[in-house]
Amino acid sequence: MQLRANLITLERDCDAKLIPSATPVTLRKGEAVMLTQALGGSYTVELHGNLVRIENKDADALGFTVEELPIALYANESGRVDEEQVWAVLATCYDPEIPVNITELGLVYRCEVVHHEATNHVIIEMTLTAPGCSMGPVMISEIDQKLKKIPGVTSTDIQLVFDPPWNQALMSEAAKLQLGML
After folding, report:
1. Distance CA 123, CA 104 (A)
2. Between the N and C ends of the chain, which has fewer C-beta atoms within 10 Å?
3. What stretches of the chain adopt beta strand conformation (E)?
């Protein structure tokens, strides 16, 4: 990894998504990007004045090791998944523009695990900080992938809802403090 003046030179081509439109782009080997956020296994970089999100699978393009989240630590011998496990995974998911996880931002309105025989179905209802944010599907895909790594999760249903509308009052005190809002 080459790092000069807070810039990282990409070591290989990689796929990414423009923020906030979620438009797919390809970043080219040798381009210099500025890392603005590296949380929960995804990366937000600035390139030519645009914010771009790079997924964990492409961390090596930035010179980083692909981050394995400690999902296995949440294994439960009974085969039943509990909500605490799900909340722990949700806390590893971040808004690509705000360095606070989605649970602290107050974006998750419902978290439920439905057990039926040997299955564990996870239901999530969540919102976005802005209803028109095109990154919603990107965030849902990341949440889905991470939840399915919990041993015993057999299916997920992640829904975007906008009632009640999100507002800053839904943020935890820790999130407000982190963002300088207290």
Report:
1. 19
2. C
3. 2-4, 7-9, 14-19, 24-27, 32-39, 42-47, 50-54, 108-116, 119-126, 155-160
Per-position pLDDT tens, the chain of length 182: 343 447 899 999 999 999 989 999 999 999 999 999 998 889 999 999 999 999 989 999 999 988 776 665 565 677 788 899 899 999 999 988 899 999 999 999 999 999 988 889 999 999 999 888 888 999 999 999 999 988 889 999 999 999 999 999 999 999 999 899 87
Tokens found for residue 6: 């807070």
Q: What is the pTM of this model?
A: 0.84
Measured distance CA(103)–CA(92) in Å, rounded: 9
